[in-house]
Amino acid sequence: MITSFSNPLVKRIKRLRQKKYRQQEGAFFVEGLRTVLTAVEQHAPIETLITCPELLTSPVAQEMLARTNLPQVALAHPIFESISERENPVGLAAIIRTRWADLDRLSVQPNDIFVALFDAADPGNLGTILRTIDAVEGAGLILVGQGVDPFHGTAVKASMGTLFTLPICYAPDAATLFQWAGSHQLQTIATSARATADFQQAPYQFPVLLLLGSEREGLPVAVLSQADLQVAIPMRGAASSLNVAVSAGILLYTLYSRLEA
Fold first, then answer.
1. Which CATH superfamily hosts domain 103-260?
2. Which DSSP string corresponds to 148-178?
3. What's the pLDDT tens digit per position in 118-153?
């Protein structure tokens, strides 16, 4: 039982809140029942399970801890609260190694739906998009450019554990992404307010790669010009654009409905 605020593990967990330390150590911190249980079920590279016996009342979590061979460390109540970013921590967390899928080794099947996200700035949006990709049985997420870290605590929480069920790849630039898409004959689909094709009527051809831009700038002009298809989501109100996670949800379920038709 760790009872000291100056314990090296406690200090490390607090460091992992910062992107530079997550990158240096190749690890990140997660907490919450659903997230940690999903990580265990999906055989994520867990370094250490972290518990607070006083807070952890879930029978499912207790059963998992009893049967797993993963390393476990218990923290006293005040210590666990000091590392938690939740108002009501449940007493279960983990340190997990970061794991990226290799874009060049990503398998592409005839009905696959992939998403590429350019220079995303909001970790909550990233996590929500991951959760939606999982909901439509999407094939994976590709992060392009210098966007937010998918292992940011907010992204992990918003993903509701789907961070561990989907391949997440990195592409340094659009040229790398389009080269990969072309080699696998993926139709690339971009959204644009100036597009003439309505998203509900567009001629989608699978497998597809949905291109999404940053919250502030949208997709670069060069990316829009290279896309096989540009589609518009009609807007009738005063707002000039939709939240990127909302746009992703609309388009992903549209694509999914075409597969189901």
1. SPOUT methyltransferase, trefoil knot domain (3.40.1280.10)
2. --TTSHHHHHHHTTGGGTS-EEEESSHHHHH
3. 988 899 999 999 999 999 999 999 999 888 899 999
